[in-house]
Write a structure and sequence with these properties.
single chain; Rossmann fold; 18 helices; alpha+beta; 7-stranded mixed sheet; 4 domains; 7-stranded antiparallel sheet; 650 residues; Calcium-transporting ATPase, cytoplasmic transduction domain A; 20 strands
Length: 650
């Protein structure tokens, strides 16, 4: 319809049709009237249906206001068509109404698409239960489904038949296969094959891992390359991450429940707009304006009912922020935690010397034997370390993974992990070991004086040996020194004061704090419990990061507590915020997310506060037609939705 209107204006303006322009415009007007009525039925029928249900419920919805506006426009159009023949050649009312229908339909389509995408994002589901997965059963089993008895048999010795089954049908003991770009449907163990995995365990926080037979895999992880057969150890609904996703959805629902407390505003605004539209139309008619102009002013005011998207977007914005936090590795126990975090200006760290916060970081890799290819050695170490959950090994994997784009998966056997000392195994038939100097000496590795290096004060070194020769070394910084320093810098840029507290040695704490960029006034060591409590109380509102050192008893709920998830306790409700990694960059990420969330809410609120009064004044004054009103509202809604969507994509 809109394209036809544009083409008509082009045709009627051609010099060739000057002599018949009057009749031509009348004919086109009649055609546009018929076209508009058809478009009104097919394009806006759902609006009138929703308005009818609103009337039955004795409520005033935006659909009711829009349907009244369209009815007024349609009545004015038909009246002009049958009563003012001479003016039809100059009338553009039919075209304007067609364009208005186009804008309204586009607005409804974009809003529905946005809400559907947002709903999908908020209803976080790491595994789609309705998806299909390749599973197996012996060929001599006639019953459909997967085999429940393959948990303790050698799958290579059994002739298997591949079947496509729903993810929700998988049970512990079933055997399934996943390949490149496929998602692990449930927690399980690799039976055969190797792959590189984008692994998630407890939240959306992901890391890259190489998986070999015997390694654990977790639901929601994605295969980057390779193919593996796995034995299910849980159902998709009982996997680790799915249990947290269920808790997350409940919190998001509570956030969206806030909308019910504000939904009455839409009804109040609709009633106000109906009264205002009637008053403005009568006022301008009594002032001598044509009744068609008065109707257009009333219709424009009624279309203002499309503008207040803020009521629906505020709770949705909070839900998006909560789910975004979970995907970044943080669980918020309550939907109010994101607001409290955004308002917080103090971040207190309870530093325990026996278990410092943060993670060990690998910061350097040095090849000592030029005969060895660095990419080949990196791929070898990634294959060797992929099965270890030791802190130094995980730090090495994170560092080495960034050195090669596509590491080769190598065959690894006879791997032994020596906690706190090192790891050894056979990679492609060659013995490799990695660990401390003492560990490698015990294994008969020979060191040259040039290969040994004294680590710095806040540094440690591990060595890599091929057979009995040292070929490389890695450098590490201890917990808190590297990620703590980065966190302090990022929080300071946000205007957050970071305070380091401990009941331990104040001199050691002072050295650590200054190495991370803290001021002397923000480092408080050697505190007794009473002094600790006094210092915290003086801060007012703050976020308290602790792993169980100081037992906080916040007065009046002034503190927002934060802990790292304890897999033994398996409880995400022990603190207001639970981090699924000890990496302190998660803290900075969460603060930055809370600030972006606060900024989106503020921008959308200001946009609404500015847009609504301005449009009301322009429409009531007769300066804004129905079509321009719909276009302005559409642009404002798109800006608000884009703000929320950027929050989800960051």
């Amino acid at each position: 319809g809109s394209l036809n209107a544009l083409v008509f204006n082009l045709i009627s303006s051609l010099p060739f049709f000057v002599d018949v322009a009057f009749d031509l415009k009348i004919i086109f007007h009649a055609l546009f009237v018929v076209l508009f009525l058809a478009l009104l039925y097919f394009g806006a029928g759902s609006i009138f249906v929703a308005a009818f249900h609103s009337l039955k419920a004795l409520s005033i919805s935006k659909e009711l206001c829009v349907s009244v506006a369209l009815t007024l426009g349609t009545v004015a159009l038909l009246w002009d068509t049958f009563t003012d023949y001479e003016a039809l050649s100059q009338s553009t009312s039919a075209q304007s109404l067609i364009f208005l229908l186009f804008v309204l339909t586009l607005d409804r389509f974009l809003e529905a698409s946005f809400l559907a995408e947002a709903e999908s994002f908020v209803r976080f589901a790491p595994v789609q239960l309705s998806a299909k997965v390749r599973a197996f059963r012996p060929q001599d089993v006639p019953a459909p489904g997967v085999n429940r008895q393959l948990a303790f048999v050698d799958t290579d010795a059994v002739e298997l038949q591949e079947e496509s089954v729903a993810v929700e049908a998988l049970q512990p003991g079933d055997v399934f296969r996943v390949g490149s770009r496929e998602v692990i449907p449930c927690d399980g163990v690799v039976l055969r094959g190797t792959c590189e995995l984008r692994e998630i365990k407890l939240s959306g926080l992901a890391g890259f891992r190489l998986k070999d037979p015997g390694a654990q895999v977790f639901a929601g992880s994605t295969v980057i390359s390779g193919e593996i057969d796995c034995r299910a150890e849980s159902t998709a609904e009982d996997s680790r991450i799915t249990s947290f996703a269920g808790e997350l959805n409940l919190i998001a629902q509570k956030s969206e429940g806030e909308q019910q407390r504000w939904s009455f505003l839409e009804g109040v605004l609709g009633a106000v707009l109906l009264v205002l539209a009637l008053s403005a139309g009568l006022f301008w008619y009594w002032q001598g304006s044509a009744w068609e102009d008065a109707v257009n002013i009333s219709a424009a005011l009624l279309l203002m009912s499309l503008a207040p998207r803020l009521v629906r977007l505020l709770p949705l914005t909070k839900s998006v922020a909560i789910v975004s936090a979970f995907k970044k590795g943080s669980f918020l126990r309550d939907h109010t935690a994101i607001d409290r975090l955004a308002e917080s200006r103090n971040f207190v760290i309870d530093y325990a010397f026996d278990a410092p916060p943060g993670r060990v970081r690998a910061v350097g890799f040095e090849l000592l034997d030029e005969r060895i290819s660095e990419p080949a050695l990196v791929s070898t170490l990634l294959s060797l370390l992929s099965g270890s959950d030791q802190e130094f090994d995980e730090a090495a994997v994170a560092y080495l993974r960034g050195m090669v784009a596509n590491p080769h998966r190598l065959e690894v056997s006879d791997v032994h992990v020596f906690a706190g000392r090192g790891i050894a195994g056979i990679v492609e038939g060659t013995e490799f070991s990695m660990g401390t100097e003492e560990f490698l000496l015990e294994r008969g590795v020979q060191f040259q004086s040039s290969e040994l290096e004294q680590p710095g004060r806040y540094e440690s070194i591990t060595y890599v040996a091929l057979e009995d020769e040292v070929v490389a070394r890695l450098r590490y910084t201890p917990r808190f020194l590297h990620d703590g320093s980065e966190m302090v810098k990022r929080l300071k840029r946000l205007g957050i004061r970071v305070v380091l507290c401990s009941s331990g040695d104040w001199e050691e704490l002072d050295a650590i704090g200054k190495a991370c960029g803290l001021e002397q006034v923000d480092i408080k060591g050697g505190l007794s419990p009473s002094e600790y409590e006094k210092r915290l109380t003086a801060l007012g509102e703050f976020v308290f990061y602790s792993n169980g050192g100081f037992k906080l008893d916040p007065k009046g709920g002034s503190a927002l507590t934060m802990r790292v998830f304890d897999e033994l306790a398996w409880d995400v409700k022990r603190s207001d915020i639970t981090l699924f990694s000890s990496d302190l960059s998660l803290v900075a990420n969460l603060y930055e997310l809370s600030r972006r969330y606060s900024a989106v809410r503020r921008v959308n609120f200001v946009l609404t506060a500015v847009l609504v009064p301005c449009l009301l004044l322009l429409a009531a004054g007769g300066f804004l037609s129905s079509l321009l009103m719909a276009v302005c509202v559409l642009i404002g809604a798109l800006l608000m939705q884009m703000n929320v969507w950027r929050l989800a994509q960051d």
